Amino acid sequence: MAARERLICTSGELVDGGDGVRFATEWQGAAEPAFAIRYGGRVHAYLNRCAHVPVEIDWQPGKFFDFTGLYLICSVHGALYDPASGVCLGGRCEGKGLRPLAVTERDGCIYLIESE
User: Fold this and answer.
1) pTM for the full model?
2) Which domains does the chain carry?
3) How many Cα atoms are found within 13 Å in the side-chain-facing hemisphere of 13?
4) Would you give the end-to-end CA distance of the chain in angstroms?
5) Using one digit for the tens of pLDDT, what is the confidence trace for 37-48?
6) What is the rounded CA–CA span in Å between residue 14 and residue 17?
7) DSSP class of 40
8) What is the C-alpha separation between 48 and 112, in angstroms, rounded?
9) Of 14, 54, 58, 72, which is least surrounded by CB within 10 A?
């Protein structure tokens, strides 16, 4: 299966521990909300869906981090996720995590890598 890249945003739109960028992607044949964030100098992207219940996790559009900028937090029940891996660190997720998406950053842009 070949892969293609789709522009999500410019690199400057993502600040370490700051607001994320929301976008849509296709997942299992349906359009799904997703987001990209920068943490530890690297870009990470996930489906915007809590591992506990299928709700979007941002507490306001693009607000995924807790007040410390160290964890992603679910707006519904406060589950905490590791921004670098998506692993649930606390809450009702029972060891589950966010669904990661493949991204790459080059030439000042961030791209989603999609399978065809």
Assistant:
1) 0.94
2) 3-115 (2.102.10.10)
3) 16
4) 6
5) 999 999 999 999
6) 8
7) T
8) 14
9) 54
